[in-house]
Amino acid sequence: MDPVLTQKVCGSTRYPKDCLSSIAPFYTGDTDPVSVLKMEVQAVRQGFATAIAKVKQMKKESDGKWNKGALDTCVDNFNSGLTDLDSALEAITDHNIKTLQTMLSSVLTYVTTCEDAMDEDPDSDALPNVTNMEQKLTNLATNSLDIANQLNWT
Predict the structure, then answer these.
(1) What is the pLDDT, as a whole number, of residue 98?
(2) What is the pTM of this model?
(3) Which InterPro entries did the record assign (predicted)?
(4) Taking the CB of residue 54, how many other CB atoms lie within 10 A of it?
(5) What is the DSSP letter of 42?
């Protein structure tokens, strides 16, 4: 990958290695911050879609072992995250920094809400897959917000 991308854009995020690995499937060759932000938002969106599928599968297989309410909370919040990520992509196109920052911040809140629901579940320790997904989503959403905060849009 382009060294400019490594140093300038992903290097300025809190999780540069996650930034680089997550955008690789979406890499277009463009290294400007707006293009990288679009790629990172696409990576977060893909992460949410994957998380929804995994949580739904876990719910189906749980046989009452886990709190289905907590899993439902995660699915609902991850679906809201997908909607807000679509709005974030629109805000990038419109160069609307306030909406972009709001949508990306909301995405982080959705992950935290899922984490909180799982923490309330006494069997949540048995759900390492959810915890790993939440951490990955948090890292990618944080990186997206870090990149957005570097944009000089008014």
Answers:
(1) 96
(2) 0.91
(3) Invertase/methylesterase_inhib, Pectinesterase_inhib_dom, PME_Inhibitor
(4) 16
(5) H
